[in-house]
Amino acid sequence: MFYFDYSATTPVNSEILAAFEKMNHQFYANVGSMHTAGTNANDKLSVARAEVANFLGVKSEEIIFTSGATESNNLIIQGVADARKNEGKHVITTMIEHSSVYDTYRYLEEFHGFEVTYLPVDENCRIRLSDLQAALRDDTILVSIMHVNSEVGSIQPVEQAIELIRTHSTAYIHLDMVQSFTKIPYTFANLDIDFASISMHKIYGLKGSGLLYRRTGTKLVRRMFGGMQEFGVRGGTANTPANMVVGLTIALALKESEQKHTYVNAFHVQLREFLQQYDFIKINTPEKNYSPYIMNFSVTGMNSDTILYTLDEAGICISTKSADVAKAQLPSRILYAMSNCEQRATSGVRISLSHLTTQAEFDYLLEQLTTIFQA
User: Fold this and answer.
1) What structural domains does the chain harbor?
2) CA dist 316 → 256, 297, 308 (Å)
3) CA-CA distance, 35 to 237, in Å (whole number)?
4) Among 69, 257, 276, 313, which residue's beta carbon has the most beta carbons within 10 A?
C-alpha cells in the first residue's frame, strides 16, 4: 500500500505504542481512587500534563486532555456560548472550518438563537482581515479560526487576526490547530489566544487522544456532567495511559521538525511542478502561505471519486475531501468557498505527504497520475 492520506490520520509511532502498552500495565488504576495505585497514577498523570504544558509554554492547569479535536472544538464553542451568552450572542468563524467547528456554529445558530458571521475567503483560501474587522462587534464573544486548512493547506493570517481581535473586541480567540501543530513554524506561547484544539492522531499518536488549551481566567461551561475530572471541564474517568504518552507524541513530532518540513516541501514543489504541466488541472493549494504536507487540485472534466478509485486500484491511498465529510456525496464546501465554482468543488483531490514518504513511493504516485491524466 502507498499511503498519501496523512492529513486524515497517521500511523502510530512504534515508540508511542510501546510506551502506551507499558503505561497500560503499570498505571491502570483510576486516578480518582484514594488508594496507592490510584494516587500513583494521578501523580504520573500530573507529570505528563506538566510535560505537555512545558512543550507549549503554558501552565499545567491550562491543559485539558480530551479524545481529540472534535471534542475539544465542541467543548470550547458550546462552553463559551453558554458561559458568555448574557454578554452577547454574536460569534464569528469562517466558511472553511472543519465540520466539528462549522456544524457546531450552525447548531448555535439554529437551536440557541446566536448570530453567526461566516467569514468568506479569497482565491488562496485565506480570510481577509478587512472582513474580520468589519464583522467584530461589541456583542461578539468568540472567534474560531482554523490555523491551517485541512483540505487545501492554506495558512491563515492568525497573528494579524489576533491583533485585530484584541484591538477591536473582547471576544475570546479559538484556533483549531490540528493541521498546524508541530508541522509549520510558529511558537505556541507567542500566539495570544484563549483556546486551542489539537489531535494526537494527526502527528503519529493515538486515535482518541487530544487536548484542549484553555487560558486561565476564561469562562467555559462544561458540557459533560457527573464528574469533576480535567479541572471540571471534562467529566469522565481519565484515559490515563493515553494521556501519559501525549508528551512523548509531541516530543517525537517536534524532533527534527525543520528537517521534516524541508524534506516534505521538496516533494510538494515536485508535485506542483508536475501538476502545472496539465492545463486542465487547477491547483487549489496556494503558492504562498501553505503547509507543504497538503496538495489539493481539481481536474476539469473528471470527478474526484474517479481519480480516488483508480489510484486505489493501483494501491495508492488519497482523499477527495477531509475525512470528516468524505462520505457525503456533496461538493467540497472549502473549494466552493474559495472558487465559487461547483465543477472545481466536485473534482478536488487531496494528496497529503509525510516525512515517511519515500522517493520510490512518490515516483510511483506520479507514474499513476500520468497514466490517469493521459488516458
Assistant:
1) 2-10+256-373 (3.90.1150.10), 14-254 (3.40.640.10)
2) 27, 17, 8
3) 16
4) 69
- For residue 271, the tally of other CB atoms under 10 A from its CB is 22
Q: Residue 288: CA atoms inside 13 Å, Cβ hemisphere, count?
A: 3
Give the type of residue at 347. Answer: S
8 A C-beta contact, residue 250 and residue 259: no
> pTM higher than 0.70, yes or no?
yes
> Cell 508511542 maps to which residue?
16
Sign of CA dihedral 29, 34, 35, 37: positive
Beta strands in 207-361 (DSSP E): 210-214, 281-283, 294-299, 316-317, 348-352
pLDDT in 10s for each residue of the chain, 375 residues: 999 999 999 999 999 999 999 999 999 999 989 999 999 999 999 999 999 999 999 999 999 999 999 999 999 999 999 999 999 999 999 999 999 999 999 999 999 999 999 999 999 999 999 999 999 999 999 999 999 999 999 999 999 999 999 999 999 999 999 999 999 999 999 999 999 999 999 999 999 999 999 999 999 999 888 888 888 888 888 899 999 999 999 999 999 999 999 999 999 999 999 999 999 999 999 999 999 999 999 999 888 899 999 999 999 999 997 555 445 567 899 999 999 999 999 999 999 999 999 999 999 999 999 999 997
**Using the 8-state DSSP alphabet, how is residue 153 labeled?**
-
- Helices and strands in the chain: count of H runs, count of E runs: 13, 12
